[in-house]
Design brief:
The protein is α/β, with parallel strands linked by helices. It has 10 helices and 11 strands.
Length: 362
């Protein structure tokens, strides 16, 4: 008895894909049966109607067989059904990207940011027409995806209400979508509130986008799907960290990772207590191709160190707003840390709100 030759990896992969393809086809057709009206809006089935109408007239006048009209008509119909079935199954069964824009006290256009996110998503073949498909299959329209706060961020009650309502509305949106929906987030506003925005996304899969002013576009900087963003680090790769000997009960943790540099001699910093200073090893801000998560992990490590050794922590920062959002996801809203906001008019850092003042319940 001779042994069979081992099957190649490609043949194994092909065999594994066949049942999956059959199941996906069955699921797609089943989904479409529940919404047959969607076929009539498909461009292929619309083209089939044109072929039937014009082809029928030409067949009558020219006297050639109707089979030459019927074949392209059926082909277009079948392509239309298949493409529509795939879309229906995708938007009912699979994880999909959900673009979200949160704008806090910033005059920039939220609609432009949302359009930029849709443009990025729709570059992927299976998400062509994503904006239209969200509305058609999930009843999600663009205004559902934009959250604007036009008030004063120092009005704590209004700011807290906005954050709680935004989180509630995000949960309602996700309830309309398949499981494990991926949020594509463009945050517009001060980094201080960006940290707060991050605290309400701790249970989500999030892709965070940063704005590039020179190209007027958004680019992805981090995908956060698990707890690796807060993993411990053995060495500081991104920052030079200056930690003083503990002499006072209060400390300012200063993060310098942008073109605008922190003035450590600013009175609110100088008189508060000790200073732990994280200075970026790069000359300017974070580059798009860098490991943004590593910056977040190193900041998290320092803040965790500080909360174990000091009674009060004040946080000042010069950093990209996308990093602020990621840091909020790592910190959550349980830490007794005072966030500050840089006021360009006066050049000082004003206390804004403590992380643990935010409560996401009604």
């Amino acid at each position: 008895m001779t042994d069979r030759p081992p099957s190649s990896p490609s043949s194994k992969l092909s065999n594994e894909r066949k049942p999956s393809l059959i199941k996906r086809t069955q699921a797609a057709i089943s989904s479409l049966i529940h919404d047959p009206a969607a076929i009539f809006n498909n461009p292929f089935t619309s083209a089939a109607s044109v072929v039937a109408a014009i082809g029928g007239l030409l067949a009558d006048q020219a006297g050639f067989g109707y089979v030459y009209v019927l074949i392209p008509f059926l082909v277009l119909i079948l392509i239309g059904i298949w493409r529509e079935a795939r879309k229906t199954a995708l938007y009912q069964k699979e994880s999909i990207p959900l673009p979200i824009v949160i704008n806090v006290a910033n005059p920039a256009s939220s609609d432009n940011a949302l359009n930029a996110l849709f443009h990025i998503i729709e570059k992927e073949e299976r998400f062509r027409g994503h904006q239209h498909n969200l509305e058609e299959y999930l009843k999600i329209v663009p205004r559902d995806l934009v959250f604007n706060f036009r008030g004063d961020i120092h009005n704590h009650e209004n700011l807290k209400d906005f954050l709680k309502i935004t989180r509630y509305d995000l949960e309602r949106l996700k309830a309309k979508t398949p499981k494990n929906t991926f949020l594509y987030l463009a945050y517009i506003g001060p980094a201080s509130v960006g940290i707060l925005v991050g605290t309400m996304l701790v249970n989500d899969s999030v892709k965070i986008f940063q704005y590039n002013k020179s190209s007027d576009s958004y680019y992805p900087v981090m995908e956060i799907v698990d707890r690796r963003i807060k993993e411990d680090v053995l060495t500081y790769e991104k920052f030079e960290v200056e930690i003083p000997e503990v002499t006072q009960p209060r400390v300012t943790v200063a993060i310098d990772v942008a073109f605008h540099k922190i003035r450590l001699e600013e009175p609110s910093i100088k008189i508060y207590g000790d200073v732990i200073y994280l200075k970026s090893r790069s000359m300017g801000t974070i580059q798009p191709n860098e490991d943004w998560a590593q910056y977040c992990r190193e900041i998290f490590k320092v803040l965790n160190f500080a909360q174990q050794r000091y009674h009060e922590i004040r946080f000042v920062y010069s950093m990209p707003i996308a990093l602020g959002v990621a840091l909020g996801i790592a910190l959550q809203n349980y830490w007794n840390v005072m966030l500050t906001n840089y006021e360009s008019a006066t050049g000082d850092y004003q206390d804004l709100i403590k992380l643990n003042e935010i409560r996401y319940y009604f």
